[in-house]
Amino acid sequence: MLDIIVSIVPMLLMSVAFVHLMVIETPVPQVVEKAIAAANEKNKDQVQILLRVSKTDGFLYTVTDKSGSRDIKVPNKGTDLDLDGLQKETLALKKSYPDVFRLELNPEESVPLDKIVQVMDKIRTTGSNDVKVTFTDVETGKPIETNLVFPDVVFGNVNGG
Amino acid sequence: MARRGFKKYMDKRSPSTFKIQITSMVDMFVILLVFLLKSYSTSPVIITPSRDMTLPASSSMKDPVEALKLMVSKTGVFVEDKKIIDLKDGVVDNKDVDPSDTQFIRSLYTELDTQASKTRTIASKNDTVEFDGKVLMQADRELNYETLRKVMYTAMMAGYSDVKIAVLSKE
After folding, report:
1. Residue A112: closest CA among chain B residues belongs to which residue?
2. How many domains in chain B?
3. CA within 20 to 30 Å of A160's CA: A124, B27, B106, B149, which one?
4. Is residue A160 part of a domain?
5. Whole-prediction pTM value?
6. ipTM of the predicted structure?
7. The CATH number of the domain where A64 resides is what?
8. Which residue from A20, A117, A158 is facing B156, i.e. has the nearest CB?
């Protein structure tokens, strides 16, 4: 047994990762992925959700659909961004537009990366496995429950704007 | 004389077998094994974060993919560990940006374009390789979006439009 352990330990030491690195992407199951592709195509010119992030003014959702455009503000809590308030508004917005998965994120230039990542965490998922959002599967027409809210986050103002 | 003394000493000793006490060593190995198994990484992509940089933490559970490595620290912008430009407290100097387009970092574009051309050349001769425009960006958590935007914009201009942000796992 000692021989086995002595052989395994160097092998594990070679592949050990003391820091677990991940990437921010769209961790979507296949049904959700199909729904995103279909929804993006369907809602291309219909629904557009923009989120502006400002260190001083907080969050501002701008939702543009067939009926027009409306703003939803999430002011700062004290001097810091209200991330819990943002998640609450995001879930409410998702209930209104269950088939929309893309969100355009427009942070101000002074917002640090750490805050941007925290905002992305709040809008990409419900933050809990107990809280689910429902959308309709494009192939079967059945309701699907997922904890992904707006997994397709794009930086809208990279190319100017 | 000394040899006779040693023989006498050996004869006097009670007959016994020399045994190594390995119980504590086995205990230590088992603890080490459990620790290593917990931190075992199955990811095929190895990323070594720079010492002068702290990555942001996220709840994302997506493993890194093989892509061009772009690193933005407070002191500079690196492409595959090669320093391209210097940053002063995480801000791009005006001399490094294009006068007609303040988002465009010319020297970074040149390097990324070279990397893209290399990959495209390899892809034209090897079917298993393709240029997919993926770039893995490791950036310091305190860097402002102003700097990141310039880097992402320049990467996009060079054909790297699929930017993946490296983060530390919260788990």
Report:
1. B144
2. 2
3. A124
4. no
5. 0.78
6. 0.76
7. 3.30.420.270
8. A158
